[in-house]
Specification:
single chain, 341 residues, alpha/beta, TIM Barrel, 10 strands, globular
Length: 341
């Protein structure tokens, strides 16, 4: 089997010849290829080159095409800072008054230059690898997360607590859902094999499971439905300890959940019950970037053992790997997966 076949088999719950590996390594790939953030984010050829080199170096199965966490926000009017050698970040909210959501024109994210660069990078990767390596075209932020960027996280949390804001809160979530779904539809046209979004502010580190049920879950379901209507499997990523909302995440209809190292893998295995693929969840900093080779091997084996009896598993870090992750640790992680049995 090739890498793409392994990843897609895991998403379908079918056995493969070895444990599939997908890396959330855009910062590491960028650094190892000698590019700054400014160079990387500005050119689809540069983005593709960094990931191609990484696959050639480490021989893994699935590319997670990520650039930063502020591209979709910028496409809907949020002011974004673009440092030369740091990841892009929102510098302010794009919707200063919640009630102004009623006056927003419909989103048109396909007109945004940075969105087009992201899509073009995926096209180049698909042209290079074909169906040999799985290409996961991430589509930046899910609706709840995007809404928090439009309002700023602090203002968004206050919005949610005020019952008088409910109509405009749901109006903003509808707007953000359309923006996210537009990105997913555009991503499907690139030839990507899989798509995904992150919705980390919707996790229990920020809001209660009851609030997740009301303000995030219905909109995540709509994005999953859009991905499936576009012919793509879907992955939902939420940072932090998602153990309290695993059942709700599973109810979105997603094909896989990509979870942080803070989530208990054994509980996730029990809750997902071989119905949904688990992606993750090695500690990207404490283990992969700062641990010894022996620790990486041990933690990898521990995780693989939890999911030994299910094909619905893809090995990855729990979140983005730091740019200075030692190459020998990445090789140890992948080598352990290849030899596990």
């Amino acid at each position: 089997m090739n890498g793409c076949e392994r990843i897609l088999a895991a998403l379908r719950g079918e056995p493969s010849d070895t444990v599939p590996v997908m890396l959330h390594n855009f910062m590491m790939a960028m650094r190892e290829a000698g590019y700054t953030h400014a160079q990387f984010r500005a050119d689809p050829d540069t983005i593709a080159d960094a990931f191609i080199r990484a696959v050639e170096t480490y021989d893994y199965d699935g590319i997670l095409v990520d650039i930063d966490t502020a591209t979709l926000a910028g496409a809907v009017g949020v002011p974004v800072t673009l440092p030369d050698d740091e990841s892009a970040r929102c510098r302010a909210g794009g919707l200063l008054r919640l009630e102004a959501v009623a006056d927003l024109p419909p989103p048109d994210v396909g007109a945004d230059p940075r969105i087009r660069i992201w899509l073009d990078a995926v096209r180049r990767l698909k042209a290079h690898f074909g169906d040999a390596v799985c290409i996961r075209g991430n589509c930046d932020q899910a609706p709840f997360s995007l809404a928090s960027m439009m309002r700023t996280p602090e203002a968004w949390m206050l919005d949610l607590m005020d019952e008088d804001n409910r109509e405009n809160v749901f109006r903003l979530l509808d707007f953000c859902t359309e923006a996210t779904c537009q990105f997913v539809r555009l991503m499907a046209e690139t030839g990507a094999h899989v798509t995904s979004n992150g919705d980390s502010p919707a996790g229990p580190d920020m809001i209660s499971p009851a609030m997740y049920e009301t303000f995030a879950l219905p909109y995540e379901k709509r994005v999953v439905a859009q991905a499936h209507a576009s012919g793509l499997p879907y992955v939902l990523h939420i940072c932090g300890d998602t153990t309290p909302i695993l059942k709700q995440m599973a109810s979105t209809g997603t094909d896989a959940v990509e979870l942080d190292y803070k989530t208990d893998a054994k509980q996730a295995r029990a809750v997902l019950d071989n119905r949904i693929c688990f992606i993750g969840n090695l500690d990207p900093s404490g283990v992969l970037a700062r641990g010894s080779v022996a620790e990486v091997e041990r933690k990898t084996r521990e995780l693989l053992t939890v999911f030994r009896d299910t094909p619905r598993f893809i090995l990855n870090a729990g979140c983005a790997m730091p740019p200075d992750t030692p190459p020998e640790n990445v090789r140890a992680m992948i080598r352990t997966a290849r030899c596990f049995g």
